[in-house]
Protein: Superfamily II DNA/RNA helicases
Amino acid sequence: MSTKFFTNKSNNSLLKKFEGVFKNLPNIHNFDALVGYFRATGYFKLRPYLENIPEIRILVGINVDVILEKYHSLGQQHIIDPQETKDEFIKKLKEDIQGADYSKDIEEGIVQFIKDIVDKKITIKAHPEKNLHAKIYIFKPKDFNEYSTGSVITGSSNLTESGLGSREKSNYEFNVELRDYDDIRFASEEFELLWSESVDILPVDISGLKEDTYLNDKFTPFELYIKLLIEYFGKRIEYDPTNIDLLLPDKYKRLTYQSEAAIEGYEKLMKYNGFFLADVVGLGKTIVASIIAKKFVFENGYHSKILIVYPPALEDNWKKTIKDFHIDNNTYFVSTGSLHKVLDGTNRTIQIQMNMI
Structure:
């Protein structure tokens, strides 16, 4: 006997199940989706099957805990705020768009998603009060009744690329498809109740996404050039002027442990305003510190000032390394034997506001 359950093993993904339902169930008029997490990149994978579906509704759970924490920290009782709900949804959507792997298909798919909302092909709501964790997908004809054919899928899969199983390495998902009238009716009634409690994400809220993300068409010539490279060379192109490995001068050997130390060190510097870099002699603490200093200059502007306090025996090594990294114009040096001049104000470095020591 065949089972109604399915996983995403052996390419038997939720996306494949959607394809089968849309192609083989006649006269689907309504597609309703209740999901905890929604990603535009997931929607565009599903979009080809929605072309001829007249009514599409998506109900999304937002991260209510974030809003509760905010109000709690302010000493206020959480009050349902429709604008707060919209803002949280739009924020997550922007993060999804900006974090999506770039390709022509993905860009066109996300642009299509925005257009669908503006054109009112789909309606999206977000629930302002409940952390919706359920995942329900309902397929129905226009006049659904006990004699017509419909379907409901429920389980673990969100409307994301990982949930749909469209990625090479997707989540393990466990779902079930039900076609009995009572099951579809029960799911529909629950959906309608939650839908009535939810907040509209209007076209006017969505339309600004194109302007606020890389989807906008106001490119500088340089950005257009980078986009062209990505389009033609894909993942072989990585442009990041503050990439740790790119900060290392050509004549220096790239060592993974130094790069990792520099990344972690810079993160600690930003988080705690300082940290101790300690290791045995000869492992390149001067190089790691210089990488961090150069990244600091890149991130905070070329006006940044760096103070290096060194023992006299290491003066030449420090000055040579800093010069190799081309940040000598940003750097001031004081030996440990001259610290008293800094403290009593007789050294000129004390008159300059330092950004990093």
The chain has 14 helices and ten strands. The two ends are 72 Å apart (CA to CA).
